[in-house]
Amino acid sequence: MEKQAAEEKYDAFILGQDKRCVVSMDCHKTQLNNNIVVVGGSDSGKTTSVVDPMLLHLQHSNAIGVFTKGGIIEDASRVLKKRGYKVFLINFAEPEKSVFGYDPLLHCKGEADIKALAHSIICAGENKGIAGKDPFWENSAENLLLPILRFVQRGHYEGGRSMREVLYLLDHLSDPDPCLPDEDCQDKQALMEAKLLHPLHMAFRKLARVDRVGNSVWQSFVSMAPNTSSGILATLQAAIQQVFTADVRKILQQQKQFDFMELSRAHVVLFLYMSPVNMAHHRYVSLFYQQVFKELFEMAERSQDKVLPHPVQVLCDDFATGCPIPDFPHLISIFREKRIAVTMLLQSETQLASLYGKMDAATIINNCDTYLYLGGMDLDTIQHIATRMDRPYFEIQNMPIGKEYFIRRGGKPIATTRYDLFQDPVYLQAVRGRARR
Q: Which of 37, 108, 338, 393 gives the lowest tally of CB atoms within 10 Å of its CB?
């Protein structure tokens, strides 16, 4: 491993105008992790002064970039392709233009993966209180979703093994069925018999043979009182509708599905483009984050040296606007040993705490050896930066527009000017290339 590390070429990224803000991604040389947290209010330049230059100057690492702005994807793709990179794009904002799709069920390999997916889908739903705040409803909805996912993923449903088939069954389940009596019907036996004629139950007849636990859950569901089963269905359907919108379903229908194994090859970049206002995209990308980190860890574990053959930079625009990634506070602490690095763009530390909780948010930030602050109005963040910089509170609060504070473990904090992308020679060349089209 030491020999491999010595021969490996590493990227160096520009994080500010000061020459001391050029950081090496060689962990063996720096003895630091490559995780970066960038904090700044809206329009403070987080993307243009940090992430855009990182992409344009990418030379050796692989990368995953999640963006709500399409311009940088076009420019970076042109530059990187000339540099020999293979570029993939999953376009949630314009699914009809997306060459590749992403189906989370296709990446489930075992029971643990299916359980994680079921939990993530329910947690991603915004209206958790649709049937009351009692966790019974979310837990019951997750328990109902789990055997359906398992049933399809294991190939027991004749329609296929993808998330599209799961959604078909769930849509059918939620549709009014002419064979079901009115909810006010007092004949419980008639109601149960009608439920047993439902097409989803017909598909689940195999459950008694292939999944006894799942069959027990289903039998329990169909025998429930109408108000209870309706509440569970409402909770499940709320999550499904919020995560799997029309745009997302178009992504599921793409013939080409991205294969995470591409990231084990050299010079590969995957872009995810999502709408800045469609929160369903953010919820769906949370599922993606969960699975891609797991896949990267497993690829590393399968390699001889237990590390990824090529470092992977994960660039997360608007990181704290989606849903929490399960186990992320733990995962980020071991990214370095697998040659994974994450750059997170936040509006404030408070924003991250609102998503993960105060303690887990602190754990995430503490596992980033590089911290960039570009200004903002959040008072708690200002206080934290004043402490880190050992400067008066009012000085941090009133920092000039265009300035930044660069903090890297093991060195003195630096007050400097944020990097000017529009004077970057690689960017100017990309713009000229765009103008000639």
A: 393
